[in-house]
Please model this.
Amino acid sequence: MQHLIQYQSLLLNTRVYLGDYLHALQILKARDVILITDENLKSLYPAFVSKFKHILIPPGEESKSMDMLNHVLNQLFEMKASRDTLILAFGGGVVTDLAAFAAGIFKRGIDFVLMPTSLLGMADAAIGGKSGINFYNAKNQLGLIKQPLFTFIDTQFLRTLPYLQFLNGLAELVKSSLIFPGNSWDFIKTNQESLMKTQPETLQVVLDEAVQNKLQLVELDVSDMGKRQLLNFGHSFGHAVEANEKILHGLAVSKGMIAAMKLSVAAGYLRLNQAKSIASQMEALGLPVSFTFKAEYLIYLEQDKKCSGETMNFVFLKNPGEAFIEKMTLSQLKSLAYDARSISF
Ligand SMILES: NC(=O)c1ccc[n+]([C@@H]2O[C@H](COP(=O)([O-])OP(=O)(O)OC[C@H]3O[C@@H](n4cnc5c(N)ncnc54)[C@H](O)[C@@H]3O)[C@@H](O)[C@H]2O)c1
Model:
């Protein structure tokens, strides 16, 4: 069995483990478990899924819906789940968001454990305690902030993850390595080849740092009202690109990070050569790095959830490992975007 790494947050009352999923089975063996997963994962890991009573949902973002929440809750009642039952969410961010929300409201909240299987889930969705579904044609409108009993990350599951989904998560890992101090950005640069071959041990090193950093940031801002917004690096323009080009979230964030770096250069915070070197490294990793400012993107900025009234908190980059939030008026931001149009990398 792989060595088990464990982080514990006393403040959040949760743990994250990195290691072989067999350890998770040992931890869970005394519990009444109901596993929730999607159909793709059941067909890829039938032996694991069949170890538990389980609830299946169709794969894809459409499953983060009121109808599917209703289905899961009905199934829990039909399976006679009690307050002692533990929900084990096994899947990507869709499964963990939906299952954690269902667990959070079933009988006023029962224990749940997250076992993310996508890189985005491991790097982001299964850490921090946010769960929810889409509603009223918008993302994550209903949900909770409630920590799992623990999150268990086993990078071996990434072997079956489609490559585009891998890149989707890699963008979030690159984001994490750029905004938090540490060695991740250098490690990513020097281990590019094994990273792109989705080598589990290499991924574990990068995830290790990303998970610790995210947990520590969440501890500083449990209710997501301040410092946690650092995680939105690349997301302001990323959301605009996502809506415009209909590409995967992580790939849009990759382009959004390029936009944020162009703005950082225009504002004099980031050196052009540094920005160019980051962008070429991101491209070498297979991430999309083309970004052109379009007038319609500014409409998205105005609707952005980080925008309150006339100001918004924008995340700038100074160096790899050094990002900061600055309150900007929309007209300041528009004028920076105007200056940044001529910056190319
Ligand atoms: N709660 C949070 O803090 C948070 C943070 C970021 C994203 N999210 C949410 O996460 C969701 C996106 O998550 P995602 O990118 O994991 O998407 P996803 O859950 O839809 O998974 C993507 C696809 O990969 C498949 N898959 C997952 N693991 C696999 C594996 N090991 N092998 C083969 N196929 C596998 C899934 O079946 C699915 O088809 C969004 O709804 C987003 O809002 C939540």
Notes: The mean pLDDT is 94. The chain has two domains: 5-161, 162-345. The radius of gyration is 20 Å.
